[in-house]
Specification:
globular, binds zinc ion
Length: about 350
């Protein structure tokens, strides 16, 4: 079968690989769709970051080359011995979190901030840019009858957005500002909308992404390359929004996010950073503002907490992945039509889904 392997920065190859056998407690999944994520792009342009290069990842025991792709869905085609909750034919979304189950965070149920945190498709394990994968059963979360299998590939990024909103302390009616409307920014906007947010401001320099933000429920769109976002937002909100989200991973947008938030408000940083950022901490101290970070999503080893919420919200329409999906490509086009187009600053693409079996 065909699968994409990450060897190194700018070196991802689609190759013929052996299919894994299905062991006890495992399932085989024929992949329907696998999204290309911002983290994948970071690995491609500036990595390896999560991908283990010199030392094997403590949970996967793998080093590069690893099979890539962590946002995927598919249909179960084989179940191993002792699997009881899943059947051949079930459509599933993959929860890719690898956690040790033993560290203090895992013992407290916070698998997503495990000391050894890893992700299938980034840290080893098995990635979804492949025709089929074999994973331990707890990674496979049933989609049920109301969610198309393709949408299952968006459960992962939507869960990142839901988790950020749940951790932010956002209350119904709160004003919100989101800095950056790539895929995770859009997921935050939809989750904030579903949580009953008041006015949602979005600051995003790319016009195509501002339009998608509007499709996801943003009320006011700001282009920070022509408008002073801090001045605009603070003057329209009596001194700042209640809650802001930094989803760009850029120093200027972090500083804008803090300064667009009212005294005593909260800024949640959701992005992964390639470089250090500089800030004036008096913006935090003098207004008693809170700055906090969120990673991934809650759930696992049974995988169902925030994943289950997202699947339910996809089923009843509170979350809608259609504004995210800008193209669908084959596996052999992964680099040229996927990664290269997404890193092009002129590109209008948001989420490109790879369809390994089409
Ligand atoms: Zn991702
Ligand atoms: Zn742990």
């Amino acid at each position: 079968m065909r699968a994409a392997l990450y060897y190194d920065r700018k070196d991802i190859r689609v190759e013929d690989v052996e299919e894994d056998t299905v062991g006890q407690g495992q399932v085989r999944i024929e992949v329907d769709s696998c999204g290309i994520c911002g983290s994948d792009l970071h690995e491609y342009t500036a990595g390896p970051i999560f991908v283990p290069r010199d030392d094997p990842h403590p949970l996967s025991q793998e080093t590069a080359p690893i099979r890539m792709g962590h946002e995927y869905s598919g249909v179960i085609t084989d179940v191993g011995e002792s699997v009881t909750d899943l059947e051949v034919g079930d459509a599933v979304a993959i929860n890719p979190i690898l956690s040790c189950g033993e560290c203090r965070q895992c013992r407290e149920g916070n698998y997503h901030i495990c000391d050894s945190i890893g992700f299938l498709g980034l840290s080893g394990g098995n990635g979804g840019f492949a025709q089929s994968v074999v994973v331990d059963e707890h990674h496979a979360v049933p989609l049920g009858d109301d969610v198309p299998v393709e949408y299952g590939a968006l459960v992962e990024p939507l869960s990142v957005g839901l988790h950020a909103v749940r951790r932010s302390g956002l209350q119904a009616g709160d004003s919100v500002a989101v800095f950056g409307s790539g895929p995770i920014g859009l997921a935050v906007i939809q989750a904030a909308r579903a949580a009953g947010a008041g006015t949602i401001y979005v600051s995003e320099p790319r016009q195509a992404r501002r339009e998608r933000a509007a499709d996801c429920g943003a009320d006011v769109l700001v282009d920070p390359s022509s408008t002073d976002a801090v001045e605009y937002i603070t003057s329209n909100t009596d001194g700042g929004v209640d809650v802001s989200f930094e989803v760009a991973g850029v120093e200027a947008s972090f500083n804008d996010a803090v300064q667009s938030t009212r005294p005593s408000g909260t800024t949640t940083v959701v992005s992964i950073w390639e470089e250090e950022a500089s800030t004036h901490l008096n913006n935090v101290v003098l207004g008693e503002r809170t700055v906090t970070g969120t990673l991934a999503y809650l759930g696992g080893p049974r995988s169902d907490e925030e994943y289950g919420m997202v699947i339910e919200m996809l089923g009843d329409g509170r979350l809608d992945p259609d504004p995210f999906i800008t193209d669908r490509i084959g596996l052999d086009e992964l680099v040229d039509e996927g990664f290269e187009r997404l890193i092009d600053p002129e590109s209008d693409h948001v989420k490109i889904l790879v369809k390994p079996n089409e």
